[in-house]
Amino acid sequence: xxxxxxxxxxxxxxxxxxxxxxxxxxxxxxxxxxxxxxxxxxxxxxxxxxxxxxxxxxxxxxxxxxxxxxxxxxxxxxxxxxxxxxxxxxxxxxxxxxxxxxxxxxxxxxxxxxxxxxxxxxxxxxxxxxxxxxxxxxxxxxxxxxxxxxxxxxxxxxxxxxx
Amino acid sequence: xxxxxxxxxxxxxxxxxxxxxxxxxxxxxxxxxxxxxxxxxxxxxxxxxxxxxxxxxxxxxxxxxxxxxxxxxxxxxxxxxxxxxxxxxxxxxxxxxxxxxxxxxxxxxxxxxxxxxxxxxxxxxxxxxxxxxxxxxxxxxxxxxxxxxxxxxxxxxxxxxxxxxxxxxxxxxxxxxxxxxxxxxxxxxxxxxxxxxxxxxxxxxxxxxxxxxxxxxxxxxxxxxxxxxxxxxxxxxxxxxxxxxxxxxxxxxxxxxxxxxxxxxxxxxxxxxxxxxxxxxxxxxxxxxxxxxxxxxxxxxxxxxxxxxxxxxxxxxxxxxxxxxxxxxxxxxxxxxxxxxxxxxxxxxxxxxxxxxxxxxxxxxxxxxxxxxxxxxxxxxxxxxxxxxxxxxxxxxxxxxxxxxxxxxxxxx
Lengths: 163, 413
Hints:
The complex is a heterodimer of chains A (about 160) and B (about 425). Chain A is built from eight helices and seven strands.
């Protein structure tokens, strides 16, 4: 079973797609050009501080708002390992899976974790923080197939024997 | 076991007798809509990521340029060109400069009982005609474009039983903001919001559009008003069919049922930066504004323009306020011209834009600066939604927006 450990950045409730990537930067040519502006309305410095393998922990309704797929793509391109939130907005949830970004729903972790803490995730099993285990519900197999392949397009190619 | 409207539409699209909440089904899509927010990304993926690119059925695709039209910089112009050329090459229906995508879909395409996916979160508007519209990203759009299909997990339905009529001076915008304030911004996450009862049937098609359009702001997968003879009349008058008028069975299962007496709804506003931060207009206090916006897929229709014109007639927009009006489509625009509404707008000092998303999405028209305050009929008031990250957006009805534009501060009509 895949396990990983990462440093936590804590964001609040209702982190919307316009905070993840404001409209004015959507015209930039690539997601790599856009990613420096991730979360800029809320915390302009954050994108520059995030390091490979870090984890975002947030409150309820993460990713609410627009269907812009650049939102999960940017988080993926910042090499965030996964987002753990109390709940996710549905279009963002779907777009994240389609881009191979792992999302984990957990009802209480947000209430105890502090920024800079370290959490360990045993995929589809549990999160460990300060020596306490928090059980997580596994994602369905068909969604894990998409995440493991790196997104929907790659999963379909794999399934159709094109890779 | 009985089915809800949403379940019946999914069952039809999946080609099965019945479905129930929680099941995952592969569905045939009746239409797929994509606008200039993300179509260029879909086109890039089509060309660069697929081994055997193909389109399942071009007749089910509609491309609409509405977010940045006319183009405001060379990057946007290039994205539009990519979209235009792809549509031409593949024979895809293409609209440019005709209006906001959801307004065009409802005017020209949507039929009751259809399942439609659109690469825009407010695709949930199509429930005004008893259809199931839902927003997706561009990867899901690509999948649907190539296969003609998609997958859905059947959502649970939350029913809103509406009774009575809205009082004079109270609008569907006040009703849906009140509901979102009550249930919260994720109160209907992944659910269908079904609006039914005599109160729903009292509402016009345009009114129903307002309710369904904002369903996503409560997190819903879609909003659907129980279709009736008003839907049949609207659809048939535009030369389309209304064969699949689905209503929920008497033994259908709802996750929750809410009751709303429309006669008790008051004018409200949503405060920055959350659509569910809703308070009575009477409690908003002294809020000076720099700009007012009337338009968007929520409130740019002829009813809204008439409300605004009635309030504006013989009056002037406040000297410190820019009042921007964008009709939702060219047919709305033309009707407003014929009814003499444009004269009233221009004489009052308002600026009338072409039919497009305009101020609502904070990119090409009427962007607001640092510290500025906007009162808007747009869909969202997220932080920085209409421009600078330290600007503020309040949401209200067409009447509230217009009265505020005259007063220079947020007031009722």
